[in-house]
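Q: Could you write out the predicted structure for this multi-component system? I'm mainly interested in how the pieces pack against one another.
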Amino acid sequence: MVEFKANPRDAAYMRALFAERYPEGTIGDAAAAAGAERVVLLYGDAIGLGWAPVERGLLRGGAEVRVLNGRRRDFALDRATRLRLRLRRAAERSLAGEAVFTIAFVAATPFLLAFDLLRGRR
Amino acid sequence: MSDATKDVQRWWAEHPMTYGDVHGESRDELGSPSFFADVDSTFLDWNRPLHDARPFGRLFPYDEHRGARVLEVGCGMGTMASLWAREGAKVTAVDLNPTAVSQTRRRFELLGLEGDIREADGRELPFDDGAFDYVWSWGVLHHSPDLGRSLRELLRVVRPGGGYGVMVYHRRSFLHAYMTRYVEGFLHLEGRFLDDLALASRYGDAAREEGNPHTWPVTKRELRAMLEAAGADVDVRVLGTDLDSVLRLMLPGLGDLLPAALKKPWARRFGWSLWAHGRRR
């Protein structure tokens, strides 16, 4: 379910997108990025589910980190953005929003049913 | 034709509504009998609550239009146009997308049905005022860059006193609130990069791909106002045939666990489709 909604693009798609946006860049794994001054992370999904350890390592090393994601968005990975990503990753994995909705759905249904019955709608 | 309309035309020609997992993809060869059978099976199954003894019999006044001139604006793969032709109406169907026109012509040919199928822009229909007894459009006009003008044009070609039916996407729906605004707009940060129209266009249709050039769902009030201004009597209702699939996307099993009676009050308020119908004054 989480994977379906994340709708990640595959590696070939992300490589092509990177080549289009950063024609001067080279592609490597996390180890190759260690010590680089400027790094672009290629999230196949929108918010980088599973990328937190890589981000921590790179930011500790003082690199300037940007993100290019599978929704074709390009943004700097600054402190505020990392906070936003952490919150959203937690919400996406835990289905917290869906749980809140389900409670509201169940709580409101009797009132909607009663309202409809009073108006003659079955 | 404006650049925006050309973009819409080009996109739909390259990604026709094939009812596969992705627009433009199909298990069967386009134009083959098995392709049309598959399209019909999927499309009719999605809309099962709207059928009686006949497909869409709870919405369409087939009986009073036997032998009458009817027009579909945006015929897609021709399922509905062929239903009307089988019911004995004199069918004309138009679509902006040349692939849809050729596929609908092919379908009519395979089924031995008669119909006038043409490429045309819904904002500039090539017909005289009042040329038709009934005109309908299903799931199309929210892709028009000027919905108000498209609705005025649709009503122009209905004879005074003639009927019409229009289905467009509903902005105050679960699907829009959950998948577009919450999942993509908030969780996936897309709301930081896209305005409301761009967000709806990217995720309202073809969300698994790259979206499409223009999708703008409307509210009941907006749809009613546009149709009344165009000279029609209007009744608008929400069609909630999508509710189960949205609940399934939210939490696995949720849609199946809840009895239909508990889902109905939500479906009739927050379904993804608005059905406006009535008569031209």
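A: Regarding packing and overall arrangement: The longest helix of chain B spans residues 33-46.
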